[in-house]
Amino acid sequence: MMLAVASRSRDKSATTILSLAMPFLLTTTTTASFATATATTTTTNPRPLLPSPSPRCQNPIPHLRLSPPARRLPCFLAAAPGARFLPFPPTRGMASLAATAAAAAAAEVTHLTQRDAAEIDEQLMGPLGFSVDQLMELAGLSVATAVAEVYKLSEHTRVVIICGPGNNGGDGLVAARHLYHFGYRTSVCYPKRTPKPLYSGLVTQLESLSIPFIPAEDLPDDLSREFDIVVDAMFGFSFHGTPRPPFDELIQRLISLSAIESSDKRPAIVSVDIPSGWHVEEGDVDGGGIKPDMLVSLTAPKLCAKKFTGPHHFLGGRFVPPPILNKYGLQLPPYPGTSMCVRIGKAPSVDISSLRENYISPELLESQVMPDPFDQFVKWFDEAVTAGLREPNAMALTTANKEGKPSSRMVLLKGVDKQGFVWYTNYGSQKARDLSENPNAALLFYWNEMNRQVRVEGSVEKVPEEESEKYFHSRPRGSQLGAIVSKQSTVIAGREVLQQAYKELEQKYSDGNLIPKPEYWGGYRLTPTLFEFWQGQQSRLHDRLQYSQRQVDGSTAWHIERLSP
Ligand SMILES: Cc1cc2nc3c(=O)[nH]c(=O)nc-3n(C[C@H](O)[C@H](O)[C@H](O)COP(=O)(O)O)c2cc1C
């Protein structure tokens, strides 16, 4: 975390090791005030900022069924105003294309000199009104969320956090608390405690969670046996000089650990902001330092991060305000959604065939599900909404033409009741052509975070015109114009064709008058004849409950059967 050890809120006695080791920091307390500080020396290749701040992205709010359309806002708008937008880095998928895009994005991220990092901290904690406690909390939370994003609880539960005496160690203590609450079995090694209320408070908090504090000399000889993750929170960007005991020895242990090539034979090593022992700007100067698997840069990566070659580089510290972004010309990637961290650097190349999750979910039993599949669907849908999933109403729609040639695409569910599942589209699109030739279609919902999918099959017909009219006019005017402009699924010469047509329509309806729904736009309703509810389980022993229709005493009833996974 970018907390200058020499900040006004700290005294030297509390940080003997650091202050001795950091002559630079003792001179930075008197640097010019924020308002008068001179222009940046920080960036490697500073670029001009966007001329005007861009609007912040509001997170899309999951909508309940039959509600007006969920707003689809581009995530790249989530960057702080004033920040240059970089392409949104992928958080999963990790195909080579995504890796290339992420690498390009990483190349543009600003890397800070040690001096600018210290200066930024001073400004944050001076004119910009932050306290050390606040920044440490946010930094530690960022570290914990980045760790949790990469090292899933299902495979990595045991974490030891080695904390140094300064702010980097404080970040580690905060991360320990959050990792505990995320479900990790967390231990802490904090050999040189800092006798200040902030630090002793953090220790008390961890003690109240019964998190064990392991003395350095009691750390097991073979860390691999006891831990899945080792977090190096010893020294941060303000460190100079040679680490003293016991940190010299602890760093050596991490160096030996990281020398074990096969990453599945040793714990993952995560360094907070700077791999301890590295030069803040030059990196691992003699090549004999810690080689972490993951680096969580805080606020902005320091120059040494350019030398990081491990698979996971994240940025945390989502608190940088526009004055800092602008003054230092910082180019930082946008944080996705509400996340406290974002991957920078290239995504690790993975063997796609090796990607697998071991699902852990409550069992889906015949005795527990609703007799009516619509009720069961609504129950699961509500649970997906409650869980805060992004666009739980997104569904894959598969159609087939009269030759049986299938075609899939995503659409948004806009209503469901006992009559069926409704979505809206263009009646001239490919899906519409398919449906006019063959009304049979399938819907697929996939709620990844809940290990659930729902298949729905049936036949499709257009919704009554009044229903489409009503829905059309409930949409934002921009979406209404967009629907008119798009002759969906036809070839167009370029994007400007759409933009031009949109502009003209915007002018035409600038008086606020009702925008008539085009006759080529409207809804479809799929009336199901079959449902399947799938719940992922361990060892691929998934639950599959299928509802199909049977005739019972002259009327149609739903019949539930379990299918083999
Ligand atoms: C998450 C998501 C939701 C979408 N929702 C709709 C929708 O509700 N209606 C629609 O016409 N297209 C929607 N689209 C675009 C379609 O996937 C598709 O590109 C478009 O309908 C043209 O498909 P077609 O040529 O197969 O008819 C959505 C795409 C995504 C990724």
TrEMBL record:
Q: Which SUPFAM superfamilies match?
A: FMN-binding split barrel (SSF50475), YjeF N-terminal domain-like (SSF64153)
Question: Which pathway does it take part in?
Answer: Cofactor metabolism; pyridoxal 5'-phosphate salvage; pyridoxal 5'-phosphate from pyridoxamine 5'-phosphate: step 1/1; Cofactor metabolism; pyridoxal 5'-phosphate salvage; pyridoxal 5'-phosphate from pyridoxine 5'-phosphate: step 1/1
Matching Pfam families: PNP_phzG_C, PNPOx_N, YjeF_N
What is the free-text note on the cofactor?
A: Binds 1 potassium ion per subunit.
Provide ranges: composition bias, Low complexity. 37-47
Q: Which residues form the YjeF N-terminal domain?
A: 117-332
- The broad enzyme category this protein falls into is isomerase
Q: Which InterPro entries does its entry note?
A: Pyridox_Oxase, Pyridox_Oxase_CS, Pyridox_Oxase_N, Pyridoxamine_oxidase_dimer_C, Split_barrel_FMN-bd, YjeF_N_dom, YjeF_N_dom_sf
EC number(s) per entry: 5.1.99.6
Residues noted as binding (6S)-NADPHX in the record, renumbered to the chain:
167-171, 236-242, 273
Keywords on this record? Answer: Flavoprotein, FMN, Isomerase, Metal-binding, NAD, Nucleotide-binding, Oxidoreductase, Potassium, Pyridoxine biosynthesis, Signal
Q: Does the keyword Transmembrane apply?
A: no
Q: Which residues form the signal peptide?
A: 1-32
A GO BP term here is: pyridoxine biosynthetic process
Q: Name one GO molecular function term.
A: nucleotide binding
For the ligand (K(+)), the binding residues are 168, 232, 276
Q: Where is this region: Disordered?
A: 37-58
Cofactor requirement:
FMN; K(+)
Q: Which reaction does it catalyse?
A: (6R)-NADPHX = (6S)-NADPHX; (6R)-NADHX = (6S)-NADHX
UniProt lists the family membership as follows: Belongs to the NnrE/AIBP family.
Matching NCBIfam families, A to Z?
pdxH (TIGR00558), PRK05679.1 (NF004231), yjeF_nterm (TIGR00197)
Tell me how this protein assembles.
Answer: Homodimer.
Q: What does this protein do?
A: Catalyzes the epimerization of the S- and R-forms of NAD(P)HX, a damaged form of NAD(P)H that is a result of enzymatic or heat-dependent hydration. This is a prerequisite for the S-specific NAD(P)H-hydrate dehydratase to allow the repair of both epimers of NAD(P)HX.
Q: What's the protein name?
A: NAD(P)H-hydrate epimerase
Organism expressing this protein natively: Urochloa decumbens
